[in-house]
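Checked the freezer inventory, then went back to the computational side. Two predictions to log before the end of the day. The first one is the construct we discussed on Monday; recording sequence and tokens without edits.
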Amino acid sequence: QVQLVESGGGLVQAGGSLRLSCAASGRTSLYSMAWFRQAPGKEREFVAQIRWSGEITSYADSVKGRFTISRDNAKNTVYLQMNSLKPDDTAVYSCTAVPTLGNRYWGQGTQVTVSS
């Protein structure tokens, strides 16, 4: 079992920055962690992913060059640094963990609101 707790969301003006954190607890070995987001009236979409070992990352085209995903294995925490934020980035951001065996886990989500 894995528990995920996100933090760092909030209200920011366009062009600003936020850093989201996702702390994982539990005894499950992880394969990767990722961030998804869901804006009002839209489907949930992939934002960024990072392998739990190695430095392999991937990003949605809409955030490439603006967002950076990173991890601190010692703290079992994944971060999403979001720069040059746009109003279109407004959404609930959710952290997800993929274990080496078993189903994906989800956090409760954190609201990010970017004002124009």
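The second is the one RB wanted added to the comparison set:
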Amino acid sequence: VQLVESGGGLVQAGGSLRLSCAASGSTLSIVVMGWYRQTPGKQRELVANIDSGGGSTVYVDSVKGRFTISRDNAKNTMYLQMNSLKPEDTAVYSCNVWESGPHGKEYWGKGTLVTVSS
């Protein structure tokens, strides 16, 4: 599975961005998809994830009500709509997926930088 993120950039506080994660390869095996973020000197944290059907989502408390995760299985693409952005949302955002089954693997994208200016 290969993952390519896009949509990052520079935005002012209060603005919006939409990140995309396009998956290719053995995409039928993908179950959970998620977004993580990391800033220098800090541990990577889960921002949000979504199950294979899109019916179950999880968000870190700091983004609840502002970010929305979604996926389009027909396009093998996951999205993260980010509204009301804050300077503390500045980070490299990476796409993460898990395959199904006991031997399912985990895959990561290279990440896309989101910078929110105050």
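For RB: DSSP finds no helices and eleven strands in the chain. The CA atoms of residues 3 and 23 lie 5 Å apart. Let me know if you want it refolded.
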